[in-house]
Amino acid sequence: MNRHNHGQLPYLTFSNLETYPGLLHAVFTRIGGVSAPPYATLNLSYAVGDRMECVIANRQRACAQLGLEMGSLTSTFQVHGLDIKQVWRGDRGTGAYPTRGLPRADALITDEPEVPLLMRFADCMPIILYDPVHHAVGLAHAGWKGTVGKIAVGTVEAMQGAFDSDPETMLAALGPGIGPCCYVVRDDVASLAKAAFTSWQEALVSLGDGLWRFDLYRANWAALASAGVPPANVESAEYCTSCRTDLFFSHRAENGRTGRFGVIVGLSQR
Ligand SMILES: [Zn+2]
Description:
By secondary structure, this protein is an alpha+beta fold. It has one domain: CNF1/YfiH-like putative cysteine hydrolases (4-Layer Sandwich). 21% of the residues lie in helices and 24% in strands. It starts with a strand and ends with a strand. Zinc ion (ZN) binds next to loops.
């Protein structure tokens, strides 16, 4: 990943996505916002108990840094499900401001310019997909449920169906999310992961007493590979959100009382 420090807010980009004209993507950190603890400072979620005016100010700062209008941010109510929603220009701005009645979905796809997608994270794995041939993007949110439910595969398939995307030519980026260093799950989750992944030994390490280290990076990487995305086209963030609470929000490390950092992905005319 590359860190950009110019202007008001730092943000990160992935090397494999950075060079495409007309593709905008940014991973924000928790730095540079106005929220008070435990949401300090760049919390982009309306749903964690932070003051709405702080979240709006934070979203305005993030958008200003990217040259976007805040009112264009297009989002969903994230529910740790597997629903994937295609959005069009008519959906532009859905969820930019605190509104009720947002669609419940954990992945968004679009091939329309000027519809920047926003999702929010604190340990769950962000998954960015880009089809450079058809100029289409996807953004997904995968905690353990989305990972074992293979929302990564579902999003690739949704892009195949909607845009005729070929997984062989797609690019993907994973993270920042909680790393295997910090993500311990119980037998129930480990059993689901074993059922979901034939190569589960690469993503699960037994700690004894019914506890396992679960590698969400490795599991989602395997899911993308099974969907036909070449492993060489997938870049993983080198961060663990739980280890790096100086940079990111972490639901686990901060006992559930924290904010959400944002990932924004969008298209312009190329
Ligand atoms: Zn860690």
